[in-house]
Specification:
Layout: H1 2-10, H2 36-61, H3 69-91, H4 107-126, H5 128-131, H6 138-148, H7 150-165
Helix pairs in contact: 1-3, 1-4, 2-3, 3-4, 3-6, 3-7
């Protein structure tokens, strides 16, 4: 999942404003590639995702000791879609503009995002025994896409707040 997200982010065109940032110090005692703000963001989102996914597993576990292929399919798809929406937030990280900004020009990003969606659908729909999954219903897909998009909308609200704060 992260490989596709990394490829999508790597496909974005360079931003001129990066050249306005002061250079990082290199060598021993130099600047670390991940800033404090980035680390805070990574760990916060990671912890929230783990909490959500653990909550889902605990909910599924109340029905029995092992997860059914249907529950595994739901869990797997929810996990992928959480990462999918977070990929859009990563696209806009540090920019404070909407993740949808210039989306039409980011054809590589859009292609990979579409590939993730299509790939997930194909794996869940046709993966069967190989992935221990079963096809999900249209209602399942809609519920998963809408509910996990909260990740994207929270990111958009935070970026809007930061823009208005300036």
């Amino acid at each position: 999942m992260d490989t596709f997200a990394a490829a999508a982010l790597a496909s974005l065109p360079p931003q001129e404003k990066v050249m306005q940032n002061k250079p990082r110090r290199s060598g021993p005692g130099g600047d670390f590639i991940i800033t404090r703000a980035m680390a805070w963001n990574i760990f916060t989102v990671g912890i929230l995702f783990v909490m959500v996914l653990m909550g889902i597993l605990l909910y599924f576990r109340h029905t029995g000791n092992s997860l059914s292929p249907y529950e595994l399919s739901l869990f797997f798809t929810i996990f992928v879609m959480l990462q999918f929406w977070n990929m859009f937030n990563a696209k806009a990280y540090g920019d404070n503009r909407s993740a949808l900004n210039n989306l039409k020009e980011d054809k590589g990003f859009l292609f990979i995002a579409l590939s993730i969606l299509v790939g997930q659908y194909l794996i869940v729909t046709f993966g069967g025994e190989m992935f221990n999954v079963v096809p999900l219903t249209r209602c399942d897909w809609i519920a998963i896409i809408v509910s996990t998009s909260v990740v994207f909308w929270i990111g958009e609200l935070i970026r809007l707040f930061l823009r208005l704060k300036k």
